[in-house]
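Sync notes, pocket subgroup
Present: LS, DG
LS reminded everyone that the earlier model was apo-only. Rerun requested with pyridoxal-5'-phosphate included. Inputs:
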Amino acid sequence: MSDEDHRRRIPRTDRLLALPAVREARERIGDAAIRRIVEERQRAAREGRLPIEEVEQAVVDALRAERPASLVPVLNATGVIVHTNLGRAPLSEGARQAIGAAAGYVDVEMDLVSGRRSARGAGAREALLQACPEAEDALIVNNGAAALLLAVTAVCAGASERDRAIPSEMIVSRGELVEIGAGFRLPDLLVTTGARLREVGTTNRTHLSDYEAAIGAATGCLLKIHPSSFRVQGFTSGVDVAALRRLADAYGLPLVVDLGSGLLRPDALLPDEPDLAGALRAGADVVIASGDKLLGGPQAGLLVGRAETIRRLAKHPLARAVRSDKLTLAAIEATLRGPETPVQAALHADPARLRERTEGLAARLAAAVQGPCEVVPHEGRVGGGGAPGVPLPGWAIELPEAMAPRLRAGAVAVVARVHRGRCLVDLRCIPESDDELLLECLIEALGDAGAAPDSAPRGLGPR
Ligand SMILES: *Cc1c(COP(=O)(O)O)cnc(C)c1O
C-alpha cells in the first residue's frame, strides 16, 4: 500500500468529531482539547505508531481519560495527615457537598428575603463564632499568611496614625521568626507591611523584660508566632500570651497571636499545640489560624478576637485583596458545623484498629501475589504546620522501594512513604471505605512487578 493510500484510510477529522463519545465529552472538555486529542491520534496513525483500525477507539479512550483539570486525586498512604504536597486537609463529605452547592449562583452577598445586599459569608462567620465562643467577632480571609498580613497592617496603622514620621514597629521574639515552607519566611512577609520588625531575645530564650525594653513611641503591636513546624529543645524559655497581655495593657498596645495550626480547643494527643480558645482567653486581641491544617477545612485564614479589632481589620482596604471566595466560605461553614473531619479522624485513629486493617490487607495482598508481605510499626505525623515532632503510633505494609513509583503511576495514584530503601504503606490517612481500592492498587503494582513483595522486583523499566 502506498503512503497516500495509507493516509487516506485514516479516519477523517469530521468523522471522529461526530463520534457519540465526542458529543458526551463536550460537556466536560473544551473544543481545543478535543481537537488536540483527535489530531494526536491521526498523527500517530500517519507515522505508523497506531494501527489505523484502532484510531477511533484510541480517541474514545483518550477522551474518557481526559480530566477537566490536571489535578489527580491520590490515596495518601504516607501517614502524614496534613501533607502540604498533597493539598493539606482532605475535606469532609459535608464540605464537599457545600462546595458543589455553592458552585453556581449563591446568596453569598444577598439577603433573599429583602433582596438587598448582605454581609459576605455571614453563615461562615457565625459558624466560626459558635465553634469559638471565646471570640467576640471573626473574619475569614484567603489563607493564614494573608490573615497575618492583614492583622499586622491594620493594627500597626494605629501607631502610625499617632505619629506619621515614624514607621511603626512590631515586637516579636527572635525564636519565632520562622520559615513556613518552600522558602517563604514570615519575617520577609511581615516587613512588606511597611512596619518594622523589632526582634527581641535570642533563638532559644526570650524574656518579658526583652519585650518591655523594646517598647517605645513607634511600637505598633506585640506579635507572638507559634513555631508550628519545629521544636527548640533544651535551655529554652518564651513568654506566654497571658504575660504578653499584661505587658500590652500596661502600655496600651494591641497583641496579635499567630497560632498556625487551627486547633479550636486543646487536644490531649497534642499537649504542646496551642488552641484558639486558650489564646483568646489569655487575652489576645486577634488570633490567626489556617483553615486547612488541624481544623481540617479548606485553605483559609481565620481571624478571631475582640470586636473592635476585627472590625478594624474588616474595614481595612487590604481586606478586600485577601477576601475568601464563596467555595471556601461554604466549605469552612460545613467543616465547622459538621461531624469529625477526616483530619481529626486520622489524628485519633485507634492504633489497634489500624493494626487490624493493615494486617488484614497485608494477608490478602500476600495471598494475591503469592509471597510474604510484612507489617511493621510505623509512626504517622501531623505534618505541615502542626505538632512538630509528635509521633502517632501506627503500622505500615513494608514493600520494596521500587514499588513507590509504581503505586504513584497506577490507575488510582497511591503515594506511599519512601524511607531507608523501603516503600511503606500507612493506612492512617486512608478512609476505611477505600481499603478495597487500596488493595487493588497494591495487587496491580506488585502483580506488574511480577515479584514477591520481599524480593527484588523484576522488569521495572519505565512503562
Ligand atoms: C502555616 C502557618 C502560616 C501560614 O498559613 P497559610 O494558611 O499556609 O497561609 C502562618 N503562620 C504560622 C505560624 C503557620 O503555622
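DG: The two ends are 32 Å apart (CA to CA).
LS: Residues 451-463 have pLDDT under 50 and may be disordered.
Action: DG to write up.
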